[in-house]
Amino acid sequence: MKKAKVLLASVFALVVLFFILQLVSANNITYLSSTLWTDAEDVQVVGDYAYCAFRNGLLIFDVSDPANPSFAGKFYLVGRGGGIYVKDSYAYLADRSVGLVIFDVSDPGNPDSVTSYSTLGGVEDVFVQDSIAYVAGGSSGLQIINVKDPANISWIGEYGTHIYSVFVLDTLAYVSRTSDGFLIINISDPANPDSIGRYDTPGSVQGIFVQDSLAYVADHGSGLQIFNISDPANPDSIGSYDTPAYANDVFVKDSLAYVADDYGGLQIINVSHPVSPSLAGSYDTPGHACAVLVKDSLAYVADDVGGLQVILVSDPANPNLFSNSDSPNEILSVFVKDGLAYVATSYTGLKIVNISDPANPDVIGCYDTPDYAVDVFVEDSLAYVADEWSGLQIFNISDPANPDSVGSYETPHYAEAVFVRDSLAYVADGGSGLQIVNIKDLANLSSVGSYQTPDWAAAILVQDSLAYVAIDDSGFQIINVSDPANPDFVGSYDTPGKVKGLFVKDSLLYLPDRGTGLLIFNVSDPANPDSIGGYYDESDVYNVFVHDSFAYLASHSNGFYIINVSDPTNPTLVGNYRTPGNSLDVFVDGEYVYVADRYSLIIFLFIILLRSYYNIKCSYNIIF
């Protein structure tokens, strides 16, 4: 018995050691929340709600008062929302990474994921008729799914490959094959779908709408194409209208075709004579119009920049904006201080988010800057914004709900980044290098000095009397600014790729070098920076933030990486999170990680489960 107890204890010790070793290597990156969503891909309006497929997932607006759409609920997905269809109390979301995701939206304020269906090719679009979902599965073709019980779906049948959009009417499915035109598929027996007709259009089919015996096709570069499909085995081209941009989607109501025309916004085409369609009116949306749906006298447009745009079309010749979801443009950078996140959102300026509860961020203030807000720095009660052509913009944020412009300085070129220390603002000014601005008197900002870098100045950080400047195609430069009127070159290092950001901590400089990875330099001798290590990754790395012994690396389409740099000569990967958008900037505050992901601000919790096991002694007295 004693031997058995010793053996049991020893085995237990081994199990404990294994668990400890697992803790050493396991680091938990947990999604907490996201806000400032942009990039709407599709929209469907049912009852008092607009259901939108955003890049980040499902977003629902209450449009019971269309003049004032309000947020109702959302559900975040790691993939990329593409198309949406709502039937009864369920929303079917086509996600290009996750697949088909079905939500219970009986309570629109709390959409709940019921189930999902994955395809090899990613899901591009979905249409639901009766109890069957017809899924455009990209390279997986048309997938036909029984959704009578949405919690227990089952596969019925499939057809072909490379199907990217779908419209169903009665026993026929009209599907796009992009550059190969469209197919008409007989689905009277959904287990055995059969192609009965096709037409190779001049462009690339993005969307199809069928009404009566006509098919209206959004044919991308070839605009709107109209076909007579009274004989589905022989669709016949009868008319077309070449829209100014790229036709992405089409919706037909009465005798008008509403075309989501990419950067051409909303195009309204009179199709009362389908053989000779003509322009009735147009409305230029903020970004790229991706999808459109018309209800009553309102057109709901999903716009990649403007989010949900509600356009009054009662007079088609003069459509005008009725309301919008107040979506930001692009989420480019973030700065966190005292429970608030300050976000540079390109053409929509500065956004201020209350993050006192990081799981429930709340946008509380905004200011639309004159140009393109690309970076933000906060000190005391002032926010400093690098606003490209409009230079340096300064805001009083003592009342964050109502930021107030208190000063500006027009730099010679593009203000790309800003760093503030004492009474000076250091601006990375693109082609004009480093610009130093006296900000002591906000009413009279003035130039103190400048330094012309060899290439585009993209980022700036100041430590002690040295300014570290990221130089696009030329690595970085170190400039002595002890006399700001006469900044002087100290040292530099030319790296292989493009550089958009940097971080300096103690005597180490961390440089994200696009196409190379994270490079680490010893700059204790600033005249001779020394490359000492790196985490090599050929992805498009953009920016880095170092906290404690970890470097957080924004890696564009690869999300963000967390790298252990406790030994800077041998950095090691700890974890990676693949975000839905393009990670451009990262800021760390304690255990919270804030990622500017182009299409949203995402907040993560990073729990370090690292334990020191070197002092744990286990006795392996295994007695047999």
Question: How would you characterize the overall build of this protein?
Answer:
β18 (207-211) and β19 (214-218) form a beta hairpin. The longest helix has 24 residues, at 2-25. The chain has four domains: 1-26 and 609-624, no CATH class; 119-200; 201-327, 7 Propeller (Methylamine Dehydrogenase, Chain H); 333-601, YVTN repeat-like/Quinoprotein amine dehydrogenase (Methylamine Dehydrogenase, Chain H, 7 Propeller), CATH 2.130.10.10. The protein is mainly β.
And the CATH topology of the largest domain?
Methylamine Dehydrogenase, Chain H
Question: Any idea of the CATH class of the largest domain?
Answer: Mainly Beta
Percentage of residues assigned to helices: under 10%
What general outline do the C-alpha atoms trace?
A: elongated
What structural category characterises the helix and strand content?
A: mainly beta
Flag low-confidence runs: 1-26, 610-624
Mean pLDDT: 91
Cα distance spanning the termini: 11 Å
Radius of gyration: 28 Å
